[in-house]
Each structure stands twice: as structure tokens, then as C-alpha cells.
Batch of 3 targets.
Target 1
Amino acid sequence: MIIMIKKHLFVTLGITAASLFALSISNHSAPQAHAAANLTYGKITNNSLHRLGTIRQLTRAQLAADHKLTGKQVQQLVYLPLPKRLTAHNFTLSKKALTIHLVKNSYGVKNVAIPLSKLTGIILNRYMPAKYDFVKPKTPNKVVSMTFDDGPDPTLTPKLLKILKHYNVPATFFEVGSSVIRYPSISRMVLKYGNQIGNHSWNHPDLTSLSSTRALHQIALTDAAIYKATGTIPAYVRPPYGSVNSRIGNLYDRPIVRWNVDSRDWAYLNTPKTVQHVLATTHPGSIILMHDIHPTLVAAVPQIIRSLKKRGYTFVTLPTLMQKPLLANLQYFGRGDFRGF
Ligand code: NI
């Protein structure tokens, strides 16, 4: 007990001395000064629980990237004890990384170092070296983001990837885990062609109709499938049918990506009608929902891209469309339109 108190006192005094020294040499926010200062998640995130949730998910993703995990271990990541409170301070901030110090866990991992390059716009600029400063991107008004759900499909997805590459259009593919395990090489191809993969559940249920445990399992199984196929854990979730409530939306520590243009490709199953509908409903800043499991949709994509380009549109990724990183437990519909639950 005495030893503990002494140690505590020593640490406290050490921190105070370091902080005073840091203050005395400069009132500028050099990151090395912050490494010793008594920082909390609240301070470095401007008291944002969405940013803290994003840091929790980045911790899981980094742990999975740094260590070769089994499918079961990936599924259990959601239960890894991580900070929930803004007053928590189980981290060290250096010039290169935010290192999270974990409590004892089944992975046998003590520290996870998230490179600062992944934290731009998540940790406040004043705690970051200048080269990682978040600056709102000056993108044109006429931007759209394309999203493709329900794949991967063994023939249609590769065909679509070639079309997107031909027109130099990046897209996000929301994949179902039960298809990823059948066609893992297609998921790898999606990333290789410069696109992103999101989580669209295991077998496409209405998540709001499931218990929280089962809903978590739908996402965790799919994370494991995508990790096994690609070595990465998807950063976004799109609930099937866009069906989500606050209970489901707050389960995953991930941004929920919705849309504001539904191609209705699944209802038309007709290329000209799909093209016409997308062109009639797209506006600047739209997130467009399509499905890479319908041949009629894949056939519509070249016409949609050419027509939108002719109208002055640029095709961008989701963070570029939103002009900021997407944060956990917020839902995104299009530029300027994101909401909590
Ligand atoms: Ni779907």
C-alpha cells in the first residue's frame, strides 16, 4: 500500500513537473509536450463521444492489422474493453502515434499504436504535428459518391470494377459476409481496384428485428469474413434496407452510411429506367445506392457516369463527399446531411 501511494505520488509529481517545464519552454502546442501532459479523450476530441467511438474502432482495426487474428478473435473484438468515458486517459500521444494502453485481455496485447495519419480530423489539430492538421477539403459543389450493395458477385462485381476503373470512379461496396466467404478473391479485387468495402451484415436481415446480441453477431461475422479475405476490417456499416434505430446505430462504433438517391435498380430490373431514375433524382452531394447483383444495373453504370460527368459532376469517396472523416454512431445521407440517433 505504501509503495503504491509513493509510486502514485511520484508519478503525479513527475507529470506536474513535466507539464510545468513544457509550459515554461513554450506555450505552443508541441506534441512532445502533450505526451507528458495529463490529457483525456475529452480534451483531444473536443468532448466528442463520436470521436471517442471512432478511436475505439480504430483500436480494434489496428490490433487486427498488427496481429494475425483468427475469425473467432475478430468476432470477439467488439467485446474488447475500451474506454467509454471522455475522462479516460489510457493513452500516450507521441509525434507519430496515439498509443492505447489496454487492460489485460484474451489477445495478450498490451498496447495498440494508431498512426496519427489515421487520426486527422478525429484528434484536434492542436494536439497533432502540423502535417496531420485537418483542413476542410475544397471540393467542388457538384460531387457524388457511388455505393454498391449486396455483393460480391463472382461475375458482375469484376465487370463493374473494370467499368469504374475505366472512368476513374472510386466507390464503396457494402458486402454481405455470406457472399464474401464464397468469393473472397472478389473482395480483394474490390480493394485492389482502389475502392472501399463496408459491412452490410451477414445475410441481410432487418437488424432492428434482432436482439442486440444477434445484430452484433451479424456485423462481427461479416467483419471476420472481410478480414479473412482482405486483412482489413471495414470502417463503415450499412444496415440492410437502411433499417436502423438508436439501439442498432449505437452498437458498432462505426459510421452508418445511408443514402439520399435510391436507384431502385432492384425494382426496375431495367437499364434505361434505372439510368433515367438516377439522373432525375441525383443532386450535388448525393450518396447513390445501387446493387452489384443486378446485370441491368451494371449495364446502367457507364451511362450514369457519362451523363453525370457531362453535367459537371465529380465522383468522390465518402469522406471527400462529407468533407470530413466519418465518425462512429452517426448516420450519413449526403453532403451536409448527417445525424445522430
Ligand atoms: Ni442490401
Target 2
Amino acid sequence: KKPVIIDCDPGLDDAIALVLALSEESLDVKCITTSAGNQTPEKTLNNALKVLSFIGKDLEVAQGAGKPILKDLVIAGDIHGESGLGGTELPEATLKKSNRSAIEAIVDILNKSDEKVTIIATGPLTNIGILLVSHPEIKDKIERITLMGGACFGGNKTPAAEFNIYVDPEAANIVFNSGIPIVMCGLDVTSKAQMFKKEINDMRNIGNKVGVMVADILDFYSSTTTPHFLSDGTKEEGPHLHDVCAVAYEIDPTLFITKKCNVVVETSGEYTKGSTVVDYNGVTDRVKNTEVVFDLDRKRFIDMLFNAVKKYNE
Ligand code: BDR
Ligand code: CA
């Protein structure tokens, strides 16, 4: 089993990413840590606890930093709803938050692990940035950081910047400069990881409560993200399962097409702050620090999610 830690900000697609990761036998999820992003730090923590309680997974959930390293927190209530889990009314969590912080939990888990641990990050990179600055020696314990964030082409928060990187560019900059192998599931691939109306209905009809939760989430996500779709309206667009891609990559990287590139983060541009500058054409001799994910086999990806949800039969 591959040991992983998931740092997330649930968040609609984060919640689905958790459903996928926690159903998967090949992953040994050591703990969940939460970042501030899609909603306030209290809400993303509470949402992680609620999702885990609902799907019946008893795992350590540790709260991370309350705000980005330098910037004020920007949230995405317009997309993910007031609660951060729009479209669903999950029961109060039965699981309690860990009594240690995200950083304490990650440091302890990494130090105790015989194997290197992979970090899957699906929110702003604040916790990971702080971890790498406060515990630089811990790098050797990290196998890889597979993250949802950034884009080679075009942003979703600003014309140049994707939301997770935009929220905490300083943290992202630390991560991309760390020397740790990085897999970047940016908008280039995640905008192709769509789920269409019929598939959402089939998800609802799987016959268990997790399928209904995922479908409720996706219906809400469709309603809030439709105005942002790049489509010209001539073909169907479904919600983009951004964060699910990062987990899916760790389960089966053969679903994806990647290219190794140098990636740096713009922390100060007037129009480009928070963008990832991908040297796609290799025009610099900067080190190729990132496996940039560009495409996926959408059908197999959706099948993977269906199989995951089916495992939650009550
Ligand atoms: C990313 O931003 C968040 O709103 C989503 O959860 C995802 O992690 C997409 O840009
Ligand atoms: Ca997220």
C-alpha cells in the first residue's frame, strides 16, 4: 500500500476526491489535513469531518493554517456554497478533529514512516509551504507532492491564475522550489475531467447514500460553475472534477498524459500574480521540476469513480 497524506479544503470536488481516495485499497491514507481556501478554515475542517463521518471512515483529521502565508484569505463561496459543501446537508460529524495541528501530524507521520510518503494536495498549498520552511529536513521523507493547482494555459480565478495557487502564491512558490518531485494536475487536465448530466444521474442511482451525496454535490457544482465554462455552448459541458484528478493519478497514473517541465510561480505580477509559468517548450535551462499533467482518459477516470462509489454499499 502506498502511504499518502491528503491536504484539502473541502470543497465540493475535494469531498469527491476523499470519497475516491478512501475507497481505494492501494492507498494507505495516513491522515487528512485541512487548508483554508474554498471556505474558512473552520468550515473546511468541519466539512472534512462531516464527509468522513458520513462515509464511515475513521481517520485523523488535523486542522491547518488559518490563512495564507502572506495574503489575506480569499474564499470561493460563490462556487462551493456558504457551507463549502453546497447541495448537501450532511449530518453533524461524529468524528472529532485531531488534537494536533496539521504540521504536527504531518511531521510525526513522516518521521515514523519507514517508507517515503506521498502528499496529495487539493487546496491552497499553505500547510505544505509552512511545513517545508519550518522542517526543511523533512523533504527526504516525501516521495512526491501530487497537487491540483495551476495551469499551463489560462486561469479560473484570474485570466492567468488558477484558484489554489492564486490564494497562496508564496506557499506554492516554496513547494515548486523545494526540489521534491511534483505532479501538477492543473486546469489543462482537470477541465477535461468532466462528468456529464447522464453520468451524474447514473451516479445518483447507484443505490447507496454516497452515490446520492456525490450526485447532489455535482448538481450544485454544475449550477455554480456553468457561467465559468469555456465552452461555446455547442457541446455539453459538465462540472470539472479538479481535485479528483490528483487522487486518481496516485491510484493509476496510466490514465494521464504528462510532460516534464520547469514550473515557477509568479508571486508579484500586476496581472499574473498566482500563475504557474510552465516552460512547455523548454526555452530555459531551468530544472524540469514538475510532471505537468495535460490530458486523461476521461472514460476510465469516470469508471474509476463509479467503482469507488459502489464500494460504499451500506
Ligand atoms: C480548485 O479550486 C477549488 O475551488 C477546487 O476545490 C479546486 O481545488 C480548482 O481551481
Ligand atoms: Ca480544492
Target 3
Amino acid sequence: DWNMPDYVQEAVEKIREQVGSDEVILGLSGGVDSSVAAALIHKAIGDQLTCVFVDHGLLRLNEAQQVMDTFAGHFGVKVIHVDASEQFMGKLEGVTDPEAKRKIIGREFVEVFQAEAAKLKNARWLAQGTIYPDVIESAASKTGKAVAIKSHHNVGGLPDTLNLKLLEPLRELFKDEVRKLGVALGLPPAMVYRHPFPGPGLGVRILGEVKAEYADLLRRADAIFIDELRNTIDHNSGKSWYDLTSQAFAVFLPVKSVGVMGDGRTYDYVVALRAVQTTDFMTADWAELPYSLLKKVSSRIINEVRGINRVTYDVSSKPPATIEWE
Ligand code: XMP
């Protein structure tokens, strides 16, 4: 039961005290944690903060634009937008193994971030949106307990090479507290209450080899799904289906199937829709979305995204399936 304005004020003062007149770099991903950390640190030290936003080309539709509009536009934060999509696509060419893809994306991400950070000669601090559960998780993994099955990417290891001190103002907070803090700092609630999105992004939602053409189709199908989830209200709870699910997204299947459109035969790709409900993401149930919602999403995707002629719904729970398909 902490009081939010007091908390913000205390956190701001603590950051000012810690950092003094030094400059700080932060890797902004558009996710909740790095966004809230950026907003808080910016409130504390303004232009002493520079954010680096690495766009790996595997983000959702209009995501880079939204991040730039919110931070650079609305808040006036200094953000360096690095469009590295071609570089990432190049490295991923011919790679089909999920863990190999994760490693490449993670390594490339660190490399691009590091190159940008190295240009900021006056920076003394690296800020990260580490939250309390991350602290526990990494402590648990050091004692050998099995935690995450899949390798998660973040900018770990950077302080060593860049010689920066770590600034982690969210270290003591749980996720729901981070969200409340984000809203108190003026971040859009839709951003703060977003479903989680994996670091490797669409890279693990395009099965097998990642291609720009596939990413483009997937982005558009995914945006339609999310749009309809946000706009469909469940009358019993008064909540949108977006808020009633913990994570929802489209997956690109690089197989072609036959369809008809008008007088013609089509031979196009398939997308699977995935929506789950979970509290801890360790187990999850597939969401019983209304048929009318599925029908609308399917018909919109097939009509609006030329190149996709079939939509399926994933009815697998975790375990034994995982939430992501890779
Ligand atoms: P799975 O697929 O293992 O996913 O059931 C559990 C949660 O973890 C997310 N996830 C990732 N997050 N990097 C991330 O940052 C990754 O490589 C990664 N793989 C899975 C997934 O989106 C879900 O929320």
C-alpha cells in the first residue's frame, strides 16, 4: 500500500543522487519494463538520458513508430532509433533452428546496441528495466534451479565491455507495481497493459527460416487479430478479449494450401492464431474465444492480407505445448 506520487518522488530523488551530472544510456525495447524505466529516469534527469532503440525488423505493425512517437515525440526523450532490419535479416538467412535463431538475434542485438553505446563517450551508466522477478530468476539460475527453458535475450554483459555502472530503478518492483508506476508517469495505459512480447519478436513466430516477405504478411495478420481482440467486449465481464487473454498473436506457417477466391484458385500461406490465459506463463490454457470473434478475424485476414488464404486456431495448452511455436 505505497502511495504512488510519494514513490515517484522518492525514486526520482534516488536516481538524481546516484547519477549526479553523469550521462545514462538505456536500451529501449518498447516493452513495459524498459519503457517505465525510461519514463522514470527521464523524469529524474531529463537530457542526461539517451535511449537506444534497436529495431531488428521483427517488431509488430507500426511498433517502431509508436515507440518513437511516445518517447521522442510526446515525452521529448532523446532516442536514437537504429534501423538494423537488413542486418538482422542477412544474419538469419538460411537459419531454421529456433534456438540458433534466438542466439543470432540476441548476439546481433547486443552488437548493435554496443556499437551505439560506444559512440556516447560521456555515458557512465547503463540503465536497465530489471524488475524484482528478474532478480529472483537470475539468483535462482545461479543456484542451478531450472527456470527458463528458452534463452531470453537482454543486454546482459554490456557493463563489462563498456565499463558502465548499472542503474536499475525498478529492481524492487513487481510487474503490477511497474504498470501502476508507468501510468502514474503518464505512459499510455494501452502500452503499460500490453501482452508480453518476446525479445526475438516475430523471429520465433515465423516457423523456420525468417524472410522479410513472411514478416510482412505476419505483421498484418497479427495486427488484425489484436485489433479485433481489443474491440470485442465480453458482456459478462465488460472487458475486452484482449484484456481477458494473457497473450495472443498470429504465427506464420511457411506451408501453402489451396483455396478459391472469385473464379480463381489460390495457393497461399497459412497463419495460426494463438491466444492463452495464464497467471505465471509456466502453464497456460488456450483461450475459449467466441466463435463470432474467430470468424471475423479469419475473414478479415483472408480478405485483407493477400498471400494468406487459410487461418487456423491453436487449441493446445501448456504443457505439453509451449505458448510460442518455437
Ligand atoms: P513459452 O513459449 O516458453 O513462453 O511457453 C513463455 C513466455 O516466454 C516468452 N518467451 C520469450 N521471451 N525471449 C523472450 O524475451 C524469448 O526467447 C522467449 N521465448 C518465449 C513467451 O512469449 C511467453 O510469454
